[in-house]
Amino acid sequence: MGKVVMNASMSIDGFIADVDDQPGPLFEWLLGGDVPLDESGILKVSQASYDYVRPYWDQVGVTIAGRHVFDMTDGWDGTPPSGVEHVVVVSHRSAPEGWDPEAPFHFVDSIEAAVALAQQLAGDRVVEVAAGNVGGQAFAAGLVDEVRMDVAPVVLGTGKRYFGSVEAKHLLEDPEVVQGNRVLHLRYQVRR
């Protein structure tokens, strides 16, 4: 079974978006380099960021997101982002009316069900959990194996927290650190 990784870009004060769900300059690093990160040609990063991010993206088989992110992105128009094969959406509501039942999106009502289904779908590939409320739930439940943060040099002050509403203490191992242009990539194994 593949590992479960919580991942997102964040500000140095721990936010993944401002109070209006806008990322602001958190993704500058995805546009400020000269190495194409994907086939679109839009995302261009430094060589260091490419060497860190691209191999990870190639391992991700399933993404877990909350209904809020699903609704904000209009369900990615039925196509999972970044070449991911499936998206598992944590929601107490079913798929939107008129949603294509053949689209590789799966709606479940708990984080435990989401991780179990995602691991089944991913096989030995990585299950990525979006940071924020859903990621915080998975982290607090002990379902996350690794935490990845792309830390942008910005202070947002308030907004949506990387770990959502996690309130208990959790220990992580020492980080792997990669310096990119306008970003510090951090990777922590969760201490068990």
Automatic annotation (TrEMBL):
Question: Short name of one Pfam family for this protein?
Answer: RibD_C
* Domain Bacterial bifunctional deaminase-reductase C-terminal span(s) in chain numbering: 3-176
Alphabetized GO MF terms? 5-amino-6-(5-phosphoribosylamino)uracil reductase activity
On the tree of life, the source organism's domain of life is Bacteria
An annotated GO BP: riboflavin biosynthetic process
Entry-linked InterPro entries: DHFR-like_dom_sf, RibDG_C
Q: Which residues cross the membrane?
A: none
- Name of this chain's protein: Dihydrofolate reductase
